[in-house]
Amino acid sequence: MSGNVRPESMERITTRALAEAFIEEQIAEVRAQVGDKKVLLALSGGVDSSVVAALLIKAIGKQLVCVHVNHGLMRKGESEDVIRVFGEAMDANLIYIDATDRYLDLLAGVAEPERKRKIIGEEFIKIFGEEAEKLEGISFLAQGTIYPDIIESKGVKAHHNVGGLPAWMTMELVEPVKLLYKDEVRVVGEALGLPHAMVYRQPFPGPGLGVRCLGAITRDRLNALREADAILREEFDNNNLNHVWQYFVAVPDFKSVGVRDGKRYEGWPAIIRAVNTVDAMTATIEEIPYAVLHRITDRITHEVEGINRVCLDLTPKPIGTIEWE
Ligand code: XMP
Asked: Which CATH entry fits the domain spanning 212-312: 3.10.129.10, 1.20.120.80, 3.40.50.2300, 3.30.300.10?
């Protein structure tokens, strides 16, 4: 897609028919741009990179090489979904890198949030770069840039974007959805046959669970967080609450006293946060029914090793940010 300005005449993609027309147009454009060369894509499993992957698989098949780096900070089942959807169902050329140990070793003992973010971002670029160097004959780099990224490129996303372009990479870019808004990317994703849950999933920060496992990350607390978060998501699905913009669990790095089976049982608290927002600049609290909260509390405290309390964060933004750190 040439040019970085969305033409005023460009119709908003709201229907499947419009999405299909867009897809056909992009397939032709990508084929013309790329020819018989290879394209590399960092596939996080987020909406934007997933839609770009599906589009490029359709356009150029195995000429696309997808690299999925599992930093060990993914939510439960996410890397498995990437392998299942892209590696298996779409038969993509997918390289899966389990970098969990590398990340968790680097992050051990690091409590300061911005340092954690920096380590996670820099390590991603290093690993992706190492992989890019191993591959032969790659001529293009695909990115899931969307229109708000272009508009705000000097703003929030720049420091948020873990998968940003490394300076040493001078490859020509392939950015087929760069003039689309998020809602349009989703419509295109569904038309490409991606699972609804993948296309409509809630935003997830690049540093993943790393900024929700508060303070210095430990493996046992990270695992507890991942399990508690999976229960929260499951209960939101079961109780028709998955329209909520963002809902997650944060686990602080201190324990409280509890009892289990008549014995003292020290554990971490799981903090639930569920917010609604339009642009993430301000956010309001979702009023989760108490019956659902009771069920979530019951499940988390009984099913997750190491958690003995559940707390609810009622703070809007401002004054609280959406993430805890
Ligand atoms: P805050 O916490 O600043 O979050 O109110 C606003 C939105 O940004 C997401 N967020 C991040 N996204 N990398 C990202 O890609 C980050 O480091 C990061 N920190 C916050 C947050 O989940 C929310 O959607």
From this structure: 3.30.300.10
Residues of the chain with CATH 3.30.300.10: 212-312
> Which superfamily does CATH assign the domain made up of 16-199 to?
HUPs (3.40.50.620)
Write out the two tokens for 288: 């989760």
How far away, in angstroms, is 107 Cα from ligand 1 center?
A: 19
pLDDT in tens, 276-312: 999 899 999 999 999 999 999 999 999 999 999 999 9
Pocket-forming residues, ligand 1, beta carbon under 6 Å = 117, 160, 203, 205-207, 246, 280, 317, 321-323
Residue nearest atom 7 in ligand 1 by C-alpha distance: 280
> What confidence tens digit (pLDDT) does each residue in 208-263 have?
999 999 999 999 999 999 999 999 999 999 999 999 999 999 999 999 999 999 99
